[in-house]
Amino acid sequence: MPVKNRFADLHEDITAWRRDIHAHPELLFDTVRTAGVVADKLKEFGVDTVETGVAQNGVVGVIKGKNGGAGRVIGLRADMDALPILENTGVDYASGTPGVMHACGHDGHTAMLLGAAKYLAETRNFDGTVVVMFQPAEEGGGGGRVMVEEGVLERHGVDEVYGMHNWPGMPVGSFSIRPGPFFAAADLLEITVTGLGGHAAKPHMTIDTTVVASHIVLALQSIVSRNLNPVKQAVVSITSFETSSTAFNVIPNAVTLKGTVRTFDPEVQDLCEDNIRRIAENTAAAFGATVEVDYQRNYPATVNAETETDYAIAAAKRVSGDCAYAPLVMGGEDFSFMLNERPGAYILVGNGDTADVHNPDYNFDDEAIPAGCSYWAELVEMRLPVSG
Ligand code: NI
Question: How far away, in angstroms, is 26 Cα from ligand 1 center?
């Protein structure tokens, strides 16, 4: 079965919504205008309840089915925030805010879920309730976590949750998914090495933190290669090396390292953290320096429930005839906070042969809209069939 006809009709409208959001990108929790657009549209569509100010600038809409909404409650989630990137696409609806850009396609996610909400409010061809959740701050900030903490799932009695992300490199409108761990846990690491600064020509009078920190960076490479069971996955990346000296002739008193750790398995996550602490502390001690390790568990792994993944596959197949088995993704995703609370599934929809996400040349492909919207509609109508 191809895309639903209604979405072929609405394709132009939804594209216009998407491009309007694209032209007005907002960062993290500051999705004021976007949330306003979303709330106005949901009201215009006749959505039963529209909640604003959720997780600061998130929006939740409740759509009751033909039977008045009794029965199961399905949560559908989209993210609304942009990235701090200077857009380079040259499209005529490019960002009007220099240095802020919808470079991850959350404009498309928001527009597609709005399209689905319009269709579901028009047709109500389901028994039960659909809760559409538009969250801020996916790109850091953990807007999904705040939505959960503010009780969105409890308040609306949500039984299962579903999310979707566009994916460059997959044919436009195709789908892929995998059960179990899918996106990695994304942890934040900061290591501060303190020694004794001094004149660069008198190293014997110092404890040189650049040398100590360099040994730590190299030693950390052995966690994945030597400590981790080779059949498991992890990434330990140091991404920033900043010394307290800016001079040619001053040995810095301190060095701050920053990085990220990506894992799928809580035991591997523990292993990485424990080894990072051990290596940093003992390497620093070996050189007579001291070290402080700040390890923050940020976004948990995104883990798809088996049963709900099967529902997602069935809905995707109704739309595009097929659903591919997706590889693991080392990127993080804060829909994980919702998936930790409720069974559900996160699916990828193809964005074609575009630049990758988080790239200044990236753009969401509007040709994916009918497939994305149809997926939401099929999922709802399949999971909440009208009885009798
Ligand atoms: Ni994204």
Answer: 14
